[in-house]
Fold these 4 entries.
Entry 1:
Amino acid sequence: MNAEPHLQTDPLFCVDSLRFAYDADPVLDLADLEIRSGGITVLIGPNGSGKTTLLKLLNGLLPVSSGVILYRGQPLNPQTIAGLRSESVLVHQDPYLFDGSVYGNVSYGLKVRRTPSEQVHQAVAEALRRVGLGGFEHRRARRLSGGERQRVAIARALVLDPKVLLLDEPTANVDVETIELLERLILYLNEGGTTVIVSTHHPAFAYRLGTRLVLMEEGRLVAGRENIFKGVSESTDERFTYFRTGAQVLRCPAQEGRFTTAVLALDDVILSKERIQTSAQNQFPATVRRVETVDHTVRVSLDCGFPVQALITEYSVDSLKVVPRAEFYVTFKASAIRLY
Amino acid sequence: MLGAFGQAIRLLVSGDKEVYFIAWTSLRLSLVSVVIASALSLPLGFLIGLKSFPAKKQLIAFLNALMALPTVVVGLLVYSFISRAGPLGFLGLLFSPAAIHIGQVILCFPLITSLVYSALSRLDQRLPETLITLGARPAEVFRMIIWEGRIAILSALLSGFGRVVGEVGVAMMLGGNIRWYTRTLTTAIALETSKGEFEFGLALGIILMAIAFLVNFTLHGVIKHER
């Protein structure tokens, strides 16, 4: 990941050696994970990968039985949980709406906080307007459509003005219009300083929104195999779409629209000592920042005016002498880039 | 049978004070017993339904066994405690409404607890999680769970009411069927039948059923209106 515009340096959550099991069935085993304030962290992975369990642990809805979760430097336990609860809200996948009106649902969190009723009215109206349900106060919550119910649940969370918003699969079972609204809403909240942690199956949603993607499989974190470049598509001609990220402009397959994310597989990036004659349209001088070996492949992090990673073999590392601060050229094809 | 219906209606419209008193006694004793039992059953049902603790399974099995207690056995047991010679005889409770309450509470407490527990154990896990994440404290979680589960809890209370309003063993043995004091519809029916007044007994039975239906319909009506 390269662009994390609202990210602050203090870690919001630090997870260390966290294990969780339902009865004897282990569902989560995280060596370490750090989530910083101000970003949009997207948890992405198949069903059963532990995303929901992790979100519930981060919200204090499940007890930490093995390992540690630090929230703002404090370990989560029954004594410190109140601080987390007052600042964070989780919205479930297929949320539970209380029997009664939309107003009753959205106002609930404010009422338990003893907020004066005049403020409650205003805050509920504003939250509903924000999710596109203005005037829905007196509708029966359980008679709404799936997308509307999801929006009510989100309004019920954002009326509390949380510092941390945890969303579990908000794109599941909702229409395209609701997904677009959710994206706008999450970006708006994040710009206002809310840290968002969201799980999804929806790759396009994840790529567009995430300032950081956390990949999960079978309860473990797995290293991402894609570069995700944040930026903006500047122009398009008959041959290419030009996508600016960091100090460079990438040539991408020509397509109409406005794009904010470019995705490139790590093994589509070629490293060379010299500039090479090739059909590939993107070639930039780069400096090696870090070299890590994972399962007989080597992940090389470089800076070429934007951060990029390449996956190469140990043989290539030795033959090309890939070491930190070495100068290389990175090359990749325009057609290898996907825009979102 | 038709004659009994006619007599039941005649008894009600004639304004027979004793019949009204007996019907009111049955209703009052049963409702108060259910209220007392629910004050014990609801917290225990919540505890069993929502929390894990040692010997939970044994407690559930014990409650299930208690549900099958014959009313006469409960009457006998309580009688042995509160009769003059019993350990609580000095309280002078025998043949009083209080004695009937003790017996009826013992009868309906396990039934209400089991039904509340079983309703709560099927509770949608997202409800308590949603309440907690929205900042509700334990008392508010408890209150909201009662509200969201009110239909199942009401059914449990009505089942308890049904168990006590129609029982005769406890009311007879502990209340003594004393006229203008502890005589209930069931003890009156037993008395009239033993005197050979089948039609009158049947008429009282019809009034008893009418009361049970009325209580059920009224409470269900209130809930439906709320929804």
Entry 2:
Amino acid sequence: MRHDRGSEPYGARRAARSLPLLLATALALGGCTLGPERSPPPSPTPTATAPDTVDRVVVADLVGALAQALPPRETTVQVIDRDDSALVVVSEALFDEGFGVQRVKADQGAYFVDYSRETAPHEDGTGLGGRLSVGPIELRRDYLITRAGEVRTASPLRVSGTRAPMGEAAAEGVASGDRSAGEAPGTGVSDPERPMLVVADPAHRRVEYVAGTSLEGQRPIISLVTPEVVERVAQEAARGSTNGPSLQALNTSRVEINNLFYGGGSNFGSVLDDYERVARRIVVFADDSLHLGPDNKRLLEDFVENLVRDDDLIGLIGCSNGPTALEIGNEGLALGRAQRVTEELTAQGIPPERIYDEGCWAPVSAGDEFPGRGVVLELWRSPV
Amino acid sequence: MSSPHGARDALLSGLLALALGACTALAPAPAPAPASEPAPLDPTDHVPRLGGDEEVVAESDPEKLRHLRLVATNLVAALVQIPELGPATATLQVNPPTTAFGNIVVRALEEAGYGLQRVDSDQGRNYVRYSQRFAQTESGPVEDFTLSVGRITLSREYVTRGGNIYPSSLLEVSGTDFVTDIDLADDVFREQGGEANDFISGTRPSTGIVDDAEVRTVDVNDFDELPLERRTPARAVLARAREQRFEREAERAPPDLERFERYRRTVLIFDDTTTQFMGAGNKRAVRLVVRELEPEDLLVIRACHDADGSNERARAHAIRIEEELAGHGVPGGARWIAPCVRASYRHPSDDAPAPVELIHYRPIDSTDRAGS
């Protein structure tokens, strides 16, 4: 699915907010209070708030924000078919928001839903970290459940996997919910069975684009030796280069890529054919190092803030060409550097799906085409 | 080594048996009851999990609910086999149901695996309509049930005899060319038992032209009756119907790989040989592969990791990947599960990570072929 997100740099759009979330969140929060048969029985103490009710507030906040990143009427999400009260709350909120909801037996589908919250004691009540992921998009926020039963924001909304503008709207929508319940904004609601989200700090109206928590740590280490590889290595050996660098490896997305040292053009040529290269930067690493350093981080931050637009693609070529003393060798250094830059870009909110990383590695120089120890960073944009 | 289809059949049979076993294992203490007694069913079993109306169902006669459940399952099991409406890819638009039959139909669609989206009017390409009509005919009173999704309509007459409900006509299908290959889930009616309650089974297009070879008579006898708790649950019927659809796709002729060149290979790693959970890394890899897919491309799934020539678990992983691809909108013709030509020898107790290859092929350019 491709969505038109405009053509301005991300940094210029940070302040742009939208009304739909305000309405959606207000509706969702309103909906939370319309089902007395679903509400938990009255609490024995007026200050306690049932977990199910807290989930409704938290989920309404996160789903309302999600609706700005994914158009509900065009999106079907997958929810695992399991008896879990929190998942029921999530399913209902998504359904009410207009998403198509599909029951699945495992983590099936392009927009598989995962919701989790962790609680921890807090001096003013209970701290709660809420996380909603839908396909590649992840939304997180910290909350505080006060002893009076209020659910208060404790952090800005943290978003990964998309740069869709949603910013302050989430918090504004929540504030609107307060008012619709007949309460003064920011004062919270005293009814512990029907808590609303209180924006505790204006800074919580911001959206931070961050790295997802599910950034894959599980990368397989398996043999990729296929008959084709054997044949090509045999040919190389016949030509006398018995100790040449490997021909293929897995990139950060586990896609098999060819070593660009041997030429042949980008592994992702067919994708990038329809795009124009609009910027090129080199991120230089120290010898035998995967350490990015503050200068490179600034370079990447500047690149994302001022150059990258929605729907742009980013090509990375991690390079290590020359002698190395490391056990991981040139291949490990090259791909490790590309991975490090990928992580930094995703930490700044670039969806991993828009990053195409590959590598160039050899124990000798690759000439002028590729740096000896760095990552070539290229920005590709559709001319349309 | 068993054939791929044989292996899949065996796997499906096993899964069905497991599902049935699980259902019976979880059932309350067996208390065989004649079909004439009210069905010991929880009304919430008939209400969709999202947007249902529990009240209208709770007010309905339990025996009537059981009949409606059979009818809805019968129609939805046929629906899932129509290629245009595969549950993995189709999202249906529904209004909140206000009748018992409506609730039961929407619940069956939900259990079949469709994505459901609530709309306020008849919006959407796959808007769901349904009806239940009573008619006095020369054969006596019958009920005519119809289920429509978008332009596709299924309708069938049913008759009530001896407290049970049976089909009394062929299933009429319109809006699709895919009519005769539907395997009707009619055996569930036989499980009700009954004397001389044979019924007709088969499909026909709305044009009315029927191939006699596709029509059969289902014999029903007293001894066919099963206690309620041992009858095939709707969920199992619908799961089987879904599997039949994938089986049929797999039966098509294998692609001619000579026409393609290998473009890219991605290796997906399952945590163990039994899990159906792919994990975030594998899902991301699939998303990337799909993103690069072009109209004439082919994705070949190869999973071979079981022991002693038995490849059922790997096969289940391959089907899981195929469903994931379908969920990303990859059409049936662009994905293919390759037969396993050489299984590695893995001890049955080995639960080490299990790889599945996803190989992306591109057609060989015609000009290149002419030159070579």
Entry 3:
Amino acid sequence: MSGVYLSTENQPFCRGCGHSLMGRAIEKALCNSKSLKPLDVVVVTDIGCVGIIDKQFKTHTVHGLHGRSVGLATGISMGLQDPKKKIIVMIGDGGATIGLHHIIEAAHLNINMTVLVHNNMLYGMTGGQTSGLTPQGFKTPTMPEGRPDHGMDICRLVHSAGAAYARRILALGDFSDVLEEAFAVDGFSLVEAVELCPSHGVKYNPGRKLDELTESVGLSPVLLRNTDKPSHRVHSLKENSNSLLDSVPGIHASFNHNLRGTTALLLAGSAGEGVQSAAELLAKAAISCGLSVTKKGSYPVTVGVGFSLAELVFSTEEIDYTGVSNIDAALVASADGLAKSLPRIEGMTGGILFIDSSLQNPSTAAETVRNDYRKHLGPRSAALLLAAQFVRKTGFIEMEAFFKTLAESKIGRTITREKLQGALEELTD
Amino acid sequence: MKTPAKTSLIDASRLMIEGTVQAGGQVFVGYPITPANLLYAYSCQRFPMALPVPDEISALQLMSGFSVAGKLPVTATSFPGLALMTESIGMAFMMELPMVIMLVQRMGPSTGTATCGAQGDVGLIGNINSGGYPVPTLCPSSFEDCFTLSARAVEVAVKLRTPVFVLTSKEMIMTLKSFDLSMIDSFEPVEREWYKGSEPYVPYLPGGNGVPGFLPVGSSEHQVRFTASTHDSKAALQHSTEEALGNTKRLRTKMEQNLPEYSYYDYEKEDSDTLLFSYGISAAAAREAAKTLRKKGRAVSMLIAKTLFPVLPEYLEIANSYSRVVVAEENLSGQYREILFGRNGREGVSGVNCIGRMITPAEIVEEVSR
């Protein structure tokens, strides 16, 4: 017969399949849910025998990938943000196996939806293979001796994750009252209907009845609730968030530079020792002198340990290509930095190298300046001190630009201009 | 030359997210991965909604759900994340769901080097769909492009009802640069039009441009259906009926049919027998090389591709008018060169390729001068 929600005549399932009983139960339960009309319901299905029913629904339907229907439905539930819309997921035990993660996540967040797990204890569509929910001892074409270990208990899993409602039933007779109860839950509800696949389950487990079989393997009916957890509510969309372009400060070119053409600098030190912030400060100071600048950071993925390198390019022209082949200056604050940048420093054919006195002199054609950079303001400010001395010695930008940028930066709160000037006076150029 | 109104030290991740949101991106669905993390971070500041998900399969599934519900979702990832997303990208493509996926290339294979840039996913992106159906892919070659093409990606996604890639790489979106923000235009959100007809909505009935009208699920007037499997215009699953095959073929033709509106490339034509061809992060090296060559008196034409997929017919038309073509891209085999000219190549076509570092202008100059 053709129902209000589902054309239940000629359901596309094998004779005797529990999936057909589920179809009839959904029709009846939805009709009994008086507040709902067909277009208030979104049925989400996926790959597996159960999924082919979707074209018989008169509701909205979304038919996706094997096992991913709960992830898809989570997005739909969050996207609609409409508690009057009922989202129903129909999935098999195979789908629940591959997509278990989505089910746990939706249960954990208590997303508004009802998941109907059609657990016929095997993959019916593909030949009856064992699934994650196949119980111990149940025989399948791929495990004809019976599954030796336990299958997963989807109800207990989602209950542990925080589902508002989890219920296991046997797919026998009319169980529409259970579905009606599940549909009415505010939050995540799951009904596991245990079935016997007439094509594979019955053949490999002859003579066994569903009630006896489920009892013997610990799949007896169960109802589990979490009553203390609110259903998931999406925060309403932020309106008028600030433009990312407005929130970044502009830098006015109020100082002068003394650069001709382009120069590239490598600042090398250890992670956590302020290399990147010193490089950024130098970059901003150069912009305040009207130069074009690029800055790249390089560090191990662990971020907080090992080397930290910054490459800076300064130019009187706009910089398009941001790669750096040869460096004109190297500022080395630590052994980590030296080890990582050694080949490039050794490859320098001129230019200038500033290096901490604690480190060995690399073999390089660059003019070398050695000072106790790590001692004067501490290791965490060695990179800053190196950058400041680079500015002082080369005069490529006004020193005042560096001090002003420092004063406006976070570093400037702890390293004042006076402190930095004091340390600079201790250095030999 | 006009005085820069506002110069800042910024990275292009900021520009990509700003462009996407201005054009109508609504929900950022994020899973962390280097080197796409800045995109995630900016999204949390700027997107109307930003959500964490437990993995990249979930990212694409949630995005598809949001898209089905009428929202415009965006994500950002790198190859390992893309690998997990791939099946779901095919689903979104088949369902014809608007969304934007930013792919920040890093060096592979596998997890490779997360903090090293690359252009190694081009071949994969070009053939990401089973059956060879191209997913529109825009590829920024400058900071300005990062803003503009990210916004255009939203537009393409909505107008063509499709996932769209913005293909970039680590060096492009993590490098800080002094940049005049007054160079940036602004975008209005792309207008979304829902089906309003009185006849029952047919979800995959194409309009004149080959693109079906869109209606989110939850409509109180019309039943709405979406399907990832082969289907007819009503989204009913079909094995291989004529109508269903026609619908599947339309997924390719709708891209090609609308291509002229989304053809982005820069072409500098000179009186030369040589064309310099590049895209993405290597484009700047090509531009520098062209400048150097021209200063030396060596005329060279240059084509910077920005719409990578579907491949624009103009690329081969232009390339075939040159006896020499030098293609610069940061991968070993010359992936886009192979797409354009086939594995056997063509006489006069050569590549400048490398991995683990950016291609230098000098290498391109050398190849052109060879």
Entry 4:
Amino acid sequence: MTSPGNDPTGSSRLALRAEGVWKSYDAGAIAVLRGVDLAAAEGGTTALCGPSGCGKSTLLHLLGGLDQPERGRIWVHGRERHPGLDPLQFLRHEVGFVFQLHNLIPDLTLAENCLIPTLAAGTDRRSALARLGQLTERTGLGHRLDHRIQKLSGGERQRTALCRALMNRPKILLADEPTGSLDAQSSAAIFELLLELVATEGVTLVMATHDRGMAERCDQVLEMRDGRIHGPEPA
Amino acid sequence: MLFLKLILTNLRRHRVRSLISLAGIAFSVAAMLTVVTILQGAITMFTGILSSDSQIIVFERNVSDLFFSHVPAGAVAEIAAWPMVAHADPVLFGVVSSADHPIITCFGITGADARIRKATWIAGDRSRFALHPDEVALGERAAGFLSASLGSSVQIGHGRFRVIGILKTANGFEDGGVFMPLGSAQRFFHQEGASSVITVKLRDQAAAADFKRTVQVRFGDLVALEDTEFTRSYSQFRILKATAWAVGGCGLLLGGLGVANTMIMSVFTRIREIAILRVNGFSSPQIAGMIFGESALVSLVGALAGLAIGTGFLYALKLVPALHGYIDVSIQPPVLLIVILLALLTGVAGALYPALYALRIRAVEALRFE
């Protein structure tokens, strides 16, 4: 048993570490995670693979602080997430999410959607706009800033979601099947962009995916089955 | 700016619902403003009748309505003789009806009364007032609805009177009233030797407290109040004011329920959107601020629209000939402030449950389901 606080492994190079994480639904009737152990190196890319319902999304939610594990502990950059880190500050500054569905607000423009995390964090407008310009330039969306989400293609929407996730310069990006709703060509393009951005931004990526080809391009592939991780399989 | 856009976006997304909600607040505010202003105007007018060239009113203690007040003639004579008193005018109020007008206010007054002295006589001669017991002067509107002219004879209640003057006043009650010589009024209303009130003008306003004390000592069953005190304490006014605010408050409550309904629907239809904002770092106060901001905006715009509608309605009422002189469209700033504050409060109260619901939304659950 380890004491709360710093990561007992002493490894500050790990962006994320989970130990014996359990999670169930319906008052324990459906056990989704049954003692998950995971370690993701800083700046590395990790793919979570496995059949639908094996607990990939649940694990991402727990790692990202959207939910609490029933048992087990999670460390972020060597600090225990609960109770060590402020959940709101963690969501605002430490982690970014990309979902299978873009989850953008349809009535707002591309720029306004991207600025939402900076609004939440209270970032000054000039810095927020500079960051927006930088990200949209790199994702090829610079000419679409004032377009509403309805006017964007599926790929553009997912690129917008990617920009939004990176606006507050998070250290960790959690992607839940980020290309799952796109055609093959768009999927490949988004994935390349994702890898490029995490590399240039120095972000740690943990991505749930069904796509073996994408998974194999990650530094680490973790296979999930029956609520547990089997692996890792070095790529 | 983006925060405001998030609020406006949702209102624009459900335009019809937002408009219905806004209209609910607007009509509630308009109703409240109209009722309160009309009653406030009526009270001001009635007070104006009492305070015509006087500062103090003397009437029977503990009487619920001035029409039932009984002040003996002896008291009038004694008070008028006090050195501190410039003049003391007895007034007897009475109500009669004619065929088409169920309520006509009658004022039994002396020829020296300020109501006669200071009114504009558009027909007749004020020096003739009270020379003969069967002669009356009419307010301009009363002359109109009684189809009376100078020298004509009119039926008022069970008596017939000759019209010796027609007066123009800015006061609706006086304009629609009948001015009788005090003695005639006392006989007509079976109040021989009595009046309803005495309106008193002091030589020195500073002597008001002394005057009131003296009345209390000399006439235990009478009470003397300064005009402002009377307006504040007269039970009829208090009942009228309470009724006006209660009616307006009920209207606003209905408007508030409309806002609550709109806000509940607004939250229910964007559970996923609220979850997205949560995932992107929105705090509970930020989420609540968005919901309350939305309802406050609806309430504020509704209140402003309601004030415009209410004011327009009051001006329209003022143009109705039958109401001439009764509607005073001088909307009091405190009334405006209270109405706007009540509308905002109603909006905020209507958003309480929706905001609590929004705060209980767990992002992880909302995102799991389509």
